[in-house]
Amino acid sequence: MKKVGLLGGTFDPPHIGHLVIAEEVYHQLKLDEVWFIPSNEPPHKDKASTAVINRVAMVEAAIDDNDHFFLKTIEIDRPGKSYTFNTIHLLKEIYPDTSFYFIIGADMVEYLPKWNKIDELINMVKFVGVKRPEYELDTNYPIIAVDIPGLDISSTMIRNRVKQNKPITYFVPSSVRRLIKENRLYESSERTRDC
Questions:
Q1: Residue 101 is part of which domain span?
Q2: d(Cα 84, Cα 194) in Å, to the nearest integer?
Q3: Which CATH number do you get for residue 20?
Q4: Looking at the domain assignment, is residue 47 inside a domain?
Q5: Its pTM surpasses 0.85
């Protein structure tokens, strides 16, 4: 049976932390592939600050040089909130011979009891909890724990650095940095007017 890791998120923008997590889980769990799944509307966050077309283009650019990373637009192709249960249900219908490993950060592990249809979901997919120093993977749900090198990078931090005209070199792949610059993503309204 094929083993596929799933990494969901707004990817607004995708950054080096996302890629390190995906690569480490890929190797440690001996997966066949990792699929990046940009969300349409995440149920636990506000809407993304960037249009879907830009987020998809950035993910494509970020994973372009990796032969076991793939983009799947299953949540974007479906309107409304992107509930994991619906995504996994559909993926299992489309790919019945695939075992899915849903990758979540340690911060999300504590929220599992609040997830939509979590008791059904836990029987449909294996959850992979990415360990971070400031969080314990303390849960009653079955979680595969994976240690990841500590990288304190977030999409919010990158967006703020762009707004403040600070460099984001090495925080995101150079191809993503180019797209951010070319499309003037995340710039403050003052910077946009000045240009």
A1: 2-150
A2: 42
A3: 3.40.50.620
A4: yes
A5: yes
